[in-house]
Amino acid sequence: MDTIWEPELVKGQGPKYQAVVTRIRQSIDQGALRPGDKLPPVRDLAWKLRITPGTVARAYTILTDEGALKAEVGRGTFVALPRPVLVDTDPIEIDVIPHRKEEDGDQYNVNLFSPHLPCVGQDKLVRQLMAQVAQDPPSGVMHYPSRSGARAAREAVVHWLKGTPLGPLRERDVVLCHGGQNGIMLILQSILEGRAPTVLIEDLAYPGFRKAAELLRAEVVPVAMDEDGIIPEALEAAARAHDAQVLCTSPEVHNPTCGFSPVGRREAIAEIARRYDFQIVEDDCYRMGVNRAPSYRMLAPGRGWYVSSIAKTITPSLRFGYAIAPEGKSSLLRRAAEHSFFGVATPLTDLCSTLLTHPDMDALADATHKAFNTYVQSAVNVLGAYDLVWRPGVPFLWLRLPVGWRAGAFCQAAEAQGVQIRSAEEFVCRDARAPHAVRMAVNAGVSLKSFEAAMLRLRDLLDSPPEQLGV
User: Fold this and answer.
1) Which of 112, 165, 178, 288 is the most buried (most CB within 10 A)?
2) Are 135 and 76 in contact (CB under 8 A)?
């Protein structure tokens, strides 16, 4: 490789990883690289070419996926042997949702507490990239996490967020964390001050907001909302009465109601935050498609914080998330992370830097979106006669119960029928009054037939409430 690699080969226009891919392909085609030849380790080649290890790793991944290279755990990356020509073979069928195939049998017990992603190929990709990182980790295995070592992962997050209306965003603005909940905790640690700070949340809200605030000994105040999200007049009254320091909200995909806050409502909230000088934390973990309105980081410069993760789009198992502070406040967020856990583990940042920039990820995300929609459509077909709230691409549904059912009793009855769902009580503050409603997450880890059967059992319960009113 010393005779064919020169630093200028990756200069000029176009992505640097693509230049590396093209040069390796040319070397194989011209015979300079022969089957079985070992390529340099990622870090060595990156040093020689004066590019990042993540760039080289991405090029190796592309060539490995197409079969030009072969990664062997513990040995390195080699030029692959020519593939044998297969004749008269049947076409390979790809199972879009291979968690649990129909032939594996129906599953009676169906857990709808939290969304379960369909496997559309991301499981195979994660395993492949884990093997690649294991045999040649760009960050090594003997060092503490560092800002410089995690730069490729932060750049990958910026790439993953392309098109998200966040305002000016650079890799140094991104702080990596252990999932979205950890990101919320870090942001609140960066913002809250004083002996008794106040955090505002929607009166129906993601429980993680409340739990993070309570861990930091903050008072949590719910704010009334309607179908468009937080009501501005209620927010202003709460901010004035409680001298609030922060509002936590989910404007793109509200959890649990599937709601959405339009831009006009967001602008009104941003103006109230400016007038009463509090910060806004936006949880965007459930969004799967494009944004429908600008983020608070864009609408409220200097006070809009953003947090998300890959748990609802790729896999929750890696616990990889990211938090982004307003311009000028990134140092507060970095300090909270570094003082809490020094940094995300280097093998994880190496893996995710390649995963988020992999050329197949957009297609995999789209396939996940479509698979979830299939389950949502099934639920709507069965339960659509009731007061059901849903949105395409949102992996849960909100069901307002008919007269005769209370949320707690309905959840108990559903569990007795093998279906676990969440009561509205889990999404309100302890002393608040909860509506008679439930949230049902989409479990794409069971067959569509099993999921639909669970919906039918819920419909039977809805058709027969225990309370008979009137005589």
Assistant:
1) 112
2) yes
Alpha carbon distance 379, 383 (integer Å): 6
| pLDDT tens for each residue of 346-359 | 999 999 999 999 99
Report how far residue 32's alpha carbon sits from residue 28's, in angstroms, rounded to the nearest whole number.
6
Domains of the chain: 7-79 (1.10.10.10), 102-123+361-463 (3.90.1150.10), 146-344 (3.40.640.10)
Identity of residue 435? P
Kindly report whether the global pTM for this prediction surpasses the value 0.85: no
Nearest partner of 351 among 151, 40, 137, 154, judged by Cα: 137
- Supply the DSSP symbol for 250: -
**Residue 396 in contact with residue 440, Cβ under 8 Å?**
yes
The residues, ordered by sequence, that sit 6+ positions from 410 with a Cβ below 8 Å of its Cβ are 401, 423, 436, 438, 461
Give the closest residue to 218 by CA, choosing from 237, 255, 191, 238.
191
Residue 325 CA, chain-centre distance (Å), reads 18
Kindly give the parts of the chain with pLDDT less than 70: 1-13, 73-74, 82-105, 467-471
